[in-house]
Amino acid sequence: MNLDRAIHAFSSLGELITSELNNKTNEGIISKACQENPWFNEHACTQALSSIAHHLLNKEKLMAWTEAYEFPARPLPQTVAIVMAGNIPLVGWHDLMCVLISGHTAQVKLSSKDEVLPKYLIEKLIEIEPSLKENIHVVEMLRDFDAVIATGSTNTTRYFEYYFGKYPHIIRKGRVSVGVLAGTESHHQMYLLGKDIFSYFGLGCRSVSKIYVPRGYDFIPLLDAFAPFSAEVDFNKYDNNYTYQKSIMLINKVPHLDTGFLLIREDKNLASAVSVLHYEFYDNDAALKSELDTLKDSIQCIVGDVDKGIANVAFGQSQSPELWDYADGVDTMKFLLSL
């Protein structure tokens, strides 16, 4: 399948997703996905589908993205194994797109926590472009492949390295994202940061789990801006985590701020538990840049005011990656075209 047909197929899928979301004709599939993974709810599934449709399956963006690469006239198709994660809905969709658009065949191992939505989108994509049926194989066990793209937790990385290290590969471990505040942000910017923190209950690698604030920072305006996210505790699993973490902090007399739905504590660690946001003070931009640079292999996104030279993702955009926003900063398309 040539590039033009691939772009047409994916952009048509984007139009279909948007139509289904607008007309609510995919409620049954979303409901099944929520039953499959207790951390998925209707909002999370809808957000993931909408983001994919608008940012990854947009015809103009697909054309601009692919123009940056040189595609061979006669590609030599390889079979690429894709091990998908299941922490948030459809987290592995971009990898599948890259494999297919680069002209390869995808052998997909889905996460048991996220099978419904990927299978549904694959089915719809094949309906749009039947020739792709020969290039997408959803399997229980990976075998006879030429290269690997695997995404998992930090704990699973060593297993991936052991089993897949001899193949050309991209192996991603768990990362987190951080936010940088200068103390001059508007109420709206702080609200947008809330989206980066609370989307998908903070379970994604692009979810902000820690913020850096200037010494002497006044947290009150920030907490006020987070008020619209108070409904998070209406979701039982999130509320259970909030109640548990609050109890631990009270028992251990850990200083913290409590909004009634989010616990904020000073902590050097980047990763935080669900319902907990870490913070750390910084003295100046130069020192902060230096620290973040030493932590770059553990950070997916730095959210903030990109015009100030530290952040690389604008407030509110961490969960809306574009086609060229590659996980871990590794150009997946370049890797695939080099096979």
Radius of gyration: 21 Å
Fraction in beta strands: 15-25%
CATH topology of the largest domain: Aldehyde Dehydrogenase, Chain A, domain 1
Question: What's the count of strands?
Answer: 12
Pick out the low-confidence regions.
none
Terminal Cα separation, in Å? Answer: 18 Å
Overall geometric form: globular
The percent of residues in helical segments reads: 40-55%
SSE string:
HHHHEHEHEEHEEHEHHEEEHEEH
CATH structural class of the largest domain:
Alpha Beta
Class of secondary structure makeup:
alpha/beta
* SS field, number of helical segments: 12
Query: Overall pLDDT, averaged?
Result: 96
Q: Main sheet: which strands, in order across?
A: 8-9-10-7-6-11-12
Your description of this structure?
- With 339 residues, the chain is α/β, with parallel strands linked by helices.
- It folds into two domains: 172 residues, Aldehyde Dehydrogenase, Chain A, domain 1 (3-Layer(aba) Sandwich); 139 residues, 3-Layer(aba) Sandwich (Aldehyde Dehydrogenase, Chain A, domain 2).
- It has twelve helices and twelve strands.
- Helix 8 links the parallel strand 6 and strand 7.
- The longest helix is centred in the first third of the chain and has 21 residues.
- The radius of gyration is 21 Å and the shape is globular.
- It starts with a helix and ends with a helix.
- The model has no long low-confidence stretch (mean pLDDT 96).
Which terms summarize this structure?
Aldehyde Dehydrogenase, Chain A, domain 1; Aldehyde Dehydrogenase, Chain A, domain 2; seven-stranded mixed β-sheet; five-stranded parallel β-sheet; 12 strands
